[in-house]
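Translate structure to sequence.
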């Protein structure tokens, strides 16, 4: 039986998308804020371990007017 050989990335980037008007629709303003290892905003994308990135995303989800992305 063949083993899957798809690439697996152990590190990820965490982004917070903020909608100042609270409307998540095309044409409305969206601010994209990269987050670091401690969940604090940073100036550029930082790589963090995938497990930590998903844990931070679970904590940040559900805030009004925001969306969390792990890329």
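Result:
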């Amino acid at each position: 039986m063949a083993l899957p050989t798809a690439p697996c990335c152990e590190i990820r980037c965490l982004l917070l998308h903020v909608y100042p008007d609270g409307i998540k629709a095309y044409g409305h303003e969206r601010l994209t804020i990269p987050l670091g290892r401690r969940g604090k905003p940073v100036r550029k994308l930082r790589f963090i371990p995938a497990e930590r990135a998903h844990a931070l995303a679970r904590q940040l989800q559900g805030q009004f007017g925001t969306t969390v992305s792990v890329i």
